[in-house]
């Protein structure tokens, strides 16, 4: 077996307003923008070992991707892990202040997490969670 283990290095969201989407997550979680990657159609944030990217609709054509599906509802969800439940609660308050919509208030899950579910200002679903002590 090859010793090189593949790893996820980037996740992109297709958004209408690059700067607003990038600023939302940068302010909420304190992620730093990778300014070297900035372009008229892309912004990226250093989110731990994964780059959180934001691409404009123009990216579809540039990458020969099929047009976005005409669908309703949530197509994907991001999950952000924080230190503990108090940080979850503070992050949820901040997210709502930054125009996120709270879908499910923070609560203990059946799988040992304290978790809230939200939509960012562009309508992308995300969770903020922490481990529950002793789980």
Describe the structure.
It is a single chain. The protein has about 140 residues and is of the alpha/beta class. The chain folds into 2 domains: about 5-65, 2,3-Dihydroxybiphenyl 1,2-Dioxygenase, domain 1 (Roll); about 75-135, 2,3-Dihydroxybiphenyl 1,2-Dioxygenase, domain 1 (Roll), CATH 3.10.180.10. Helices cover about 20% and strands about 35% of the residues. It has 3 helices and 8 strands; from the N terminus they run βαβββαβαβββ. The chain has helices at about 20-30, 60, 85-95, and strands at about 10-15, 30-35, 40-45, 50-55, 75-80, 100-110, 115-120, 125-130. It has a 4-stranded mixed sheet, covered by helices on one side. It has a 4-stranded mixed sheet with strand order 5-8-7-6, with helices on one face. The longest helix is centred in the last third of the chain and has 13 residues, at about 85-95. The protein is globular and about 45 Å long. The N and C termini lie far apart (about 35 Å).
CATH class of the largest domain: Alpha Beta
Largest sheet: 4 strands, mixed
Strand order of the largest sheet: 1-4-3-2
CATH third-tier fold name of the largest domain: 2,3-Dihydroxybiphenyl 1,2-Dioxygenase, domain 1
Count of DSSP-assigned helices: 3
Helix residue percentage? 10-25%
Amino-to-carboxy terminus distance: 34 Å
């Amino acid at each position: 077996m090859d010793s090189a283990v593949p790893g996820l290095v980037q996740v992109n969201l297709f958004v209408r307003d690059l700067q607003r989407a990038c600023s939302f997550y940068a302010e909420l979680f304190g992620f730093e923008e990778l300014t070297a990657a900035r372009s008229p159609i892309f912004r990226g944030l250093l989110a731990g070992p994964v780059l959180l990217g934001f691409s404009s609709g123009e990216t579809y054509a540039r990458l020969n991707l099929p047009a976005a599906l005409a669908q309703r509802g949530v197509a994907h969800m991001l999950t952000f892990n924080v230190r503990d439940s108090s940080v979850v609660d503070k992050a949820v308050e901040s997210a709502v202040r930054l125009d996120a919509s709270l879908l499910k208030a923070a609560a203990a899950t059946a799988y040992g997490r304290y978790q809230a579910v939200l939509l960012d200002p562009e309508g992308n679903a995300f969770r903020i969670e922490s481990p529950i002590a002793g789980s």
